[in-house]
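Bench log. Compound arrived from synthesis this morning; before running ITC I wanted a structural hypothesis for how ribulose-5-phosphate sits in the protein. Inputs:
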Amino acid sequence: MSSDDWKRQAAEHALNYVKDGMRLGLGTGSTAAKFVDLLGGKVRDGLKVVCVPTSETTRLHAASLNIPLATLDQYGSLDLTIDGADEVDEELRLIKGGGGALLREKIVAVASERVVIIADISKRVDVLGRFPLPLEVVPFGLSATRRLVAALAGDCGCEGEVKVRVGADGAPFMTDNGNHILDCAFGVIDDPEALDDALKLVPGVVESGLFLGIADVGIIAGPKGIEVLTGIESDFDEEI
Ligand code: 5RP
């Protein structure tokens, strides 16, 4: 089995959390896309849901499958969001933003009563930080923001290259919100909460890819089957 198969298995398992009539947040990335594919099949078979996508890519994908869509402003809050992640630790702390959608993903996740993360085993880590931490930053003053990020992260014991992400055209990658992404290769992040607090002090940082205390359930698929992780503050595990 390949990581693609495990991503699909995790997505299939997440369907168990979806109930008729729910307002759903739809994540971004290859794993979330598998969930969207499966959800499209359920909608075709008669499932009634309304979905808020976390990116233009996901919006187009869901629309192509005739999944009913809404904006977050139409509802204000959602029942459940299903999304992928770049890293997941034991406490369900996450690094997200590899696909550049972290700001909308975090807005949608925080507006959701429940958040289920789906991933293949390669995303499961003991300590966050192997995957470069993405930060969404405003274009204005990019170099100053980059310098301050590196300095404040250093104060938290996080050293490493802070790179402006570039797109296929060689220009700085542009998010759906018209911002850029800094990818921070910090290596081990010993204290994600302290780092997140520090990064929020940088005026040009819009949001960090650290998702702390946000996920309720993590569905991790691998060669030994499916592991279901539950967030420390969650009361949402075996409700399926
Ligand atoms: C996008 C994300 C994705 O969920 C994350 O990058 C995982 O993507 P994939 O499922 O393709 O590995 O945070 O901003």
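What the model suggests: The CA atoms of residues 59 and 176 lie 12 Å apart. The longest strand covers residues 112-120.
ITC booked for Thursday regardless.
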